[in-house]
Amino acid sequence: MIVNNRSVMKLQHLSVGYLVKSHPTPLLKDINLDINPGEVVCLLGQNGVGKSTLLRTIAGLQPPLAGEVLLAHRPVQAYSIQELATKISLVLTEKVGGGNLTVEELVALGRHPYTNWLGLLSKEDKSAVEEAVALTKINYLLNKKVGELSDGQYQKAMIARAVAQDGDLMILDEPTAFLDLNNSVEIFMLLRQLALEKEKAVVVSTHDFHLAMEFADRLWLTNFNSPLVQGLPEDLALNGLLEESLYHEGFGFDLLNGRVLLPTKEGTTFSLAGDSPAHNWTKRALERHGYLPGDTNAAIKLTIEMEGNATSWVATNQRFHSLESLLNYLAGPKSK
Ligand SMILES: Nc1ncnc2c1ncn2[C@@H]1O[C@H](COP(=O)(O)OP(=O)(O)OP(=O)(O)O)[C@@H](O)[C@H]1O
Alpha helix locations (H) across 68-180? Predict the structure, then answer.
């Protein structure tokens, strides 16, 4: 057996869930794993599978139904709130109060576990706040009231507070739920930076499969009535567990190209000649309209041509200058 002495946290035979009418009702059962410094873990799974419940349990906010959450060899429940706050930085989805605080004051709250009884910030505290603000790029928000922030801005301010808190373990529940693509990528880049440069262990739940594949060192895959599966994203792709966990009734998933695969059906076939960057876009548009890729005997024979930046499609001796005009032609005159 390999003993992992590096881990920040150990989950041992952990079951998480709720007492429903006094009966333990587990959502995820018998989880055994280590959370390592310097790693970003992405927790994936369908709505309601128990991701938030798992994160809340490992953060010590609710008791395990069975098994143990060990933080530096001690059950997380044995820590005082103050002590825990210096070790675990938590960003949850729900809005907590503090609408009248400025963003700067909110971020400074991250230093609360370290300040004296007067709550005064030391030089070190102030520089931790400044660093958190710089890393999350929210300088322009500092004087705004928390209650006046957009959902995305609020999310970034809460992440800044967690960065200022400086726990060894950062737990974030869907931190990019309200963020646009730019901000989502920035947050994931920041999480990687915190893991790599500051040796933080980062556990983040997300529904963004592509960002998880891009940024996670490790995935935790959850499914209803199944054991949690964990591993490197590439290992899970190669051993088929990723595809298995992503399978949904009625459609599949093309992992390499990151596309949803609709069920195949009978339909008119097409072939594509001409090697151009437009090849994939053409295939997508045709498939979405119910045409199927075929061989050289296909009913519709298309050639893609490029002149400079201009793409055109040739079918049955007619030339089309957009996919829209090609698809309209293939559809034929619409009956009313
Ligand atoms: N306090 C509670 N008591 C009983 N059941 C609860 C409680 N809180 C949540 N649940 C139930 O536990 C299940 C899992 O909820 P959880 O929020 O952990 O899921 P999730 O995987 O994070 O979902 P999502 O992706 O939608 O955020 C849900 O069916 C939910 O209704």
Answer: 81-85, 103-109, 123-136, 151-165
List the CATH code of the domain at 9-251.
Answer: 3.40.50.300
- Cα(43) to ligand 1 centroid in Å equals 15
pLDDT in tens, the chain (336 residues): 555 678 999 999 999 999 999 899 999 999 999 999 999 999 999 999 999 999 999 999 999 999 999 999 999 999 998 899 999 999 987 777 777 889 999 999 988 887 766 677 788 889 999 999 999 999 999 999 999 998 888 989 999 999 999 999 999 999 998 889 988 998 999 999 999 988 999 999 999 988 999 999 999 999 999 999 999 998 998 888 888 887 676 777 777 766 677 766 677 899 998 877 899 899 989 988 889 888 888 999 999 998 888 899 999 889 999 999 999 999 887 644
The closest alpha carbon to 302, from 310, 285, 314, belongs to: 314
Ligand 1 surroundings by CB, under 6 angstroms? 18, 27, 45, 47-53
* Rounded Cα gap, residues 305 and 313, in angstroms: 6
Question: In Å, how far from its chain's centre is CA 64?
Answer: 24
86 vs 323: CA distance, rounded Å: 57
Locate the domains of the chain by residue range.
Answer: 9-251, 269-331
State the distance from the centre of ligand 1 to the C-alpha of 76, rounded, in angstroms: 21
User: Which of 28, 53, 205, 208 is the best mutation target for the ligand 1 pocket, counting ligand atoms within 8 Å of the beta carbon and taking the most?
Assistant: 53
Q: Which atom of ligand 1 is nearest to the CA of 222?
A: 21
Beta-strand pair 269-273/292-293:
parallel
Q: How far is the CA of 45 from the centre of ligand 1 (A)?
A: 12
